[in-house]
Every structure is written in C-alpha cells, then in structure tokens.
Amino acid sequence: MASENAEKVDLSLNTVSDTKPKKEWINLSLRVLSFFATASATLIMALNKQTKTLVVATIGTTPLTITLTAKFLHTPAFIFFVIVNGIVSLYNLVVIAMDILGPHYDYKGLRLGLTAILDVMAMAVAASGDGAATFMAEVGRNGNSHAKWEKICDKFEAYCNRSGVALATSFLGIILLLVVTVMSITKLSKLNRI
C-alpha cells in the first residue's frame, strides 16, 4: 500500500515537470515572435523612403517640376518610433538569451521579477512610440483642416502604405509582449505563493 502511494506521488511530480517546460517554450516562442515583429517594424520604417517628381507650374508649354522625398527622418514621431522599436527589439533579444542561459544563473527568482518589471516598461515605451507614429500617420493620411495641414498620402501612397505596415507590425509586437508580460507576472506570482 505504501509503495503504491509513493508511485502515485512520483507520477504526479512527473506530470508537473512535463508541463512546466512547455510553458517555458510558449513564453520563449512568443518573445521570439515579438522580437521579429518589433525588429521588422524598425527596419520597415527606417528603410521607408519614396521620391516623387511633381509638376508645380507650367510656363508656356514647359512644365516646372520639383522632386520631393518622403522619409522617416522628416518626422520626429517616426524617428521616435524607430528608436523605441529598436530598443524593444534589443531588449527582447537580451531576454531571449537570458531565457536560454538564465536558469543556470537565477538567484532565487530575481531574474523573473526583473524581467516582469522590464517587460512592463518596454511595453509602455513601445506603446508611446506607436501612439506618436499613429497620430502622425493619421495626419499624413487625412490632413487636418483646422490646422491647415495638407495630407501627403495622396502624393506618397507607397510611403504611407509601408508606414502602415510598420505600425501594424509594431502593434502586433506589443500585443505579443503583453501576453508574455502576463505570463511572466503569473509565473512570478506562483513562485511567490510557494
């Protein structure tokens, strides 16, 4: 009878240990996806550039043209977007390395607590960059009649479309980082209950 109880305890411990690594891999996979999303948003916006030649006047039969270039460096909100997504990408890369190597160097849950706090901070910074860039994208797409700001997306459509893709990708990265943050905080709270 006693040996049967011991076997039951061993079996239940084995099932717990089998599910724990699965959650670790889910967390790591989501963080890797978040890294790719924020890194691709950074690259898409940083390489976003469109040059267009526009006719501004006609003198007789000769058109007077001007060549204009739209790039992310012309808008401080887009510069902030690129910097913030680059920082969050770098942060995700460091945490991925720590998740792979970290269990060997964990000091009583310090890594988990610090990661949860830094996840929240990274998410907040990324959200502020996305908010600023989204505002500027809205002004570029529709203009603002009250401030007399003309829209530019009717002239630089490819530039605006690539900016929209970068924003959508970055928002996907933030959502994935939110899920990872919730998982990290849940894991930390379970660790503190024991």
Q: Which structural class matches the secondary elements? A: mainly alpha
Which range does the strand content fall in?
5-15%
Please tell me how large the radius of gyration is.
25 Å
Shape: elongated
Mean pLDDT equals: 83
Domain count: the total is 1
Total number of β-strand segments?
2
Number of helices: 4
- The poorly predicted ranges are 6-20
Strand order of the main beta sheet, please?
1-2
Q: Helix coverage percent of residues?
A: over 70%
Order of helices and strands: HEEHHH
Overview of this structure, please?
- This protein has one domain (21-193).
- A hairpin with a 2-residue loop joins strand 1 (49-59) and strand 2.
- It has 194 residues and is mainly alpha-helical.
- Helices cover 73% and strands 11% of the residues.
